[in-house]
Amino acid sequence: MKKKYPLNIFFITGFILIILLSPINNKIDLTKDKRFTLNTITIEQIKLIQNEIHIDVFLSGRLPSSYRKIQTELKGIINSFQSIKNIFSVNFIDPFDEKTSLTETIDEMSKYGMNPLYVVQNSNRSYDQKVVFPWIIITYNKKSILVNLLDSNLGDTEEKKIINSIKNIEYKLTDAIKRLNNEKKDSVGYLTSHKTSEVLKITDWLNNIKRYYNLTLIDLKKSSNDYIYALKNLNELKLIIISNPREKFSQEEKFLIDQYQINGGNIIWLIDQVKIDLNKLDYNGLSLASINDLNLEDYFFKYGFRIKSELIKDIYCSSIVIADGDGNDTRYIPFPWVYYPISKPNNHIISTGIGSVWLRFASPIDTLENNAKKTYLLTSSNFSKYQSIPSMINLKFAVEPIITSEYTSPSKPIAILSEGIFNSVFNNRLLPIRGINLKNKGKSKMLLISEGQFGENQIERGSPIELGYDKWTNNFYSNKEFLMNSVHYLMGNSDHILLKSKKINLNVFDKVKIENYKINKPIMLITFPLIVLILIYYIIYNYRKKVL
User: Fold this and answer.
1) What percent of the chain has a predicted confidence (pLDDT) above 90?
2) Residue 523: which domain range?
3) Can you name the residues that pair with 172 across neighbouring β-strands?
4) Same domain membership, residue 258 and residue 140
5) Section 164-174 average pLDDT
6) Given the DSSP bridges, would you call strands 305-307 and 365-367 parallel, antiparallel or unpaired?
């Protein structure tokens, strides 16, 4: 006979196992996208921390339901951080907990850079406005960083803002921790001579660079006083940015840049091969497109490039807004503008998590054989054509129908990353500077973008707006993300880009179904129990009938 064990033994054994295993803080992540598993880069950063990290969370108090989701996700991620290393202390602060008025609270928080967010809720056909502060302050070694938990772009729906914010919490926390623990920053140089992009027009990009690296402004025109000292200063920089120059480079200046690159320095070039007077185009509707002679042809040729003196016209393009009418009857109408191609970055670490970018009056690039590895990061589409220079640009082109049968040219590169061993431009040539020994070849990286305005932000009422936002069409593009990823890559900081590569799939509820459920819920609560009772009664009745 089989021995029967009392059922109680199984319950007691299970209870003992739960007690024994409860101290083990191992979570099993069964989600397909590994949503609850920390990025390995995050784990490595936490392990590098030596002292306590304190986090003040101001997303607290009576929050709208959607923002409670962000708070819940934040708590979960901080707990995961804590399980790696027990060095985190968290304080949830309700900004409205004090006996102060709403206006006083907003003014006080704004002094510390924490601007309020006004959330309008639609509940039971009534509207309710709440004020939230989606901010945290992370403090480490007496240094603090303010982090905005809300991740949104202009034009995003409220639902998309919440989803993006939840997706990026781990990245934002790790990014802040890494910046706080970075005691020595590498240096990036920005060329201010040669009529490059005005600082106001490139403010947003430079401000983002300064969050991670030291920024040095370079004036090569002053280097003529002491070329040896100038090259020494250049060699202390890991990266140089040259954005939209409008003035020729002398042989001496090219020599300094060449030797900087041959000595291991990296460069981002944003070059307009074609110059157009945009003011004339705006006011007269007509402008001549001519060659922008920078005296750099031999330089790029030696490094394996040739920017063609042509303009790309692409069916996949942004719009230009043209005024129609006079006075109070003026209307602003967007028209497709084939001179503003839109490009989706090709597959590369720099392109991680990046949407389409916006270019204006770009030129195609030809590549030449050398030992360097070349990667096409941005290209025109297969529905494009090319306009030779010199020629006229007329705004009337925008209102004319696009004859798609003419746009059959194959895609051409607009942005190329080149990395490897380069030979000096000045090999077997007379050196323009005495006292500096020529280095013939060296390892380097360079990114060439054949569009000078690519890194420039627009200006609104005398102040810079966010890079990538076109105020005329209200469209947002990923220019800033592309450029910042490029900077991180050329600075040898690819981990920062990989940190953003984690993808989380969040389910979005069907609002129509939810509303239908609300309507049907009372009926279900009454009907379902009645059906169950009737079935039970029927079963019992039949059972008793058979037995009796």
Assistant:
1) 59
2) 509-548
3) none
4) no
5) 89
6) antiparallel
Phi-psi region of 353 (alpha: psi -120 to 50; beta: other; left: phi over 0): left
DSSP-assigned states of every residue in 487-516: HHHHTT-HHHHHHTT---------HHHHHH
Residue 158 lies in a domain: yes
Between strands 239-243 and 266-270, the pairing is: parallel
Look at residue 5 and tell me if it is in a domain.
no
Distance CA 143, CA 452 (A): 37
| pLDDT tens-place string over residues 528-542 | 677 877 888 777 777
All residues at 6 or more sequence positions from 459 whose CB lies less than 8 Å from its CB, including other chains: 200, 201, 465
Element (H, E) at 463: strand 463-464
Are 309 and 464 contacting, i.e. CB atoms less than 8 angstroms apart?
no
Q: What angle do CA 51, 54, 55 make, to 5 degrees?
A: 145
Give how many domains the chain has, as a whole number.
Answer: 3
What mean pLDDT do residues 452-477 have? 93
What pLDDT, on a 0 to 100 scale, did the predictor assign at position 500? 75
Q: Give the model's pLDDT for residue 306.
A: 96
Both tokens assigned to 34: 């590994």
Per the CB < 8 A criterion, the answer to whether 480 and 488 are in contact is no
Sheet strand arrangement including 357-358 = 317-324, 331-343, 357-358
Please name every residue paired with 464 in a beta bridge, in sequence order, or none if there are none: 459
Q: Among 331, 332, 330, 334, which Cα is nearest to 320's?
A: 334
Query: What CA–CA distance (Å, rounded) separates 127 from 136?
Result: 28
d(CA 278, CA 280): 5
Q: How far apart are CA 81 and CA 83, in angstroms?
A: 5
Q: How far apart are CA 526 and CA 535, in angstroms?
A: 15
Q: Which residue, 92, 85, 82, is CA-closest to 55?
A: 92
Label each residue of 77-109 as H, E or C: HHHHHHHHCCCEEEEECCCCCCCCCHHHHHHHH
Rounded Cα gap, residues 548 and 186, in angstroms: 92
Output the pLDDT for position 295: 97
Helix residue ranges, H only, 381-475: 396-399
Helix (H) or strand (E) holding 70: helix 65-84
How far apart, in Å, are the Cα atoms of 22 and each of 15, 19, 25, 26?
A: 11, 5, 7, 9
In a domain, 35, yes or no: no
Q: Is 435 left (phi over 0), alpha (psi -120 to 50) or beta?
A: left
Give the mean model confidence (pLDDT) for residues 62-74: 90
Question: What gap in Å lies between CA 416 and CA 376, rounded to an integer?
Answer: 5
Q: Give pLDDT tens digits for 213-237.
A: 999 999 999 887 889 999 999 999 9
What pLDDT was estimated at residue 17?
52
Please check the confidence at residue 367 and state whether its pLDDT lies above 50.
yes
Tens of pLDDT, residue by residue over 5-47, are 454 554 455 556 555 544 444 555 545 555 667 888 889 889 9
Quote the CA–CA distance of 430 and 134 in Å, as a whole number. Answer: 61
Residue 27 lies in a domain: no
Which of 180, 199, 223 marks a domain boundary?
180
Residue-wise pLDDT tens digits, 263-294 = 999 999 999 999 999 999 988 889 999 999 99
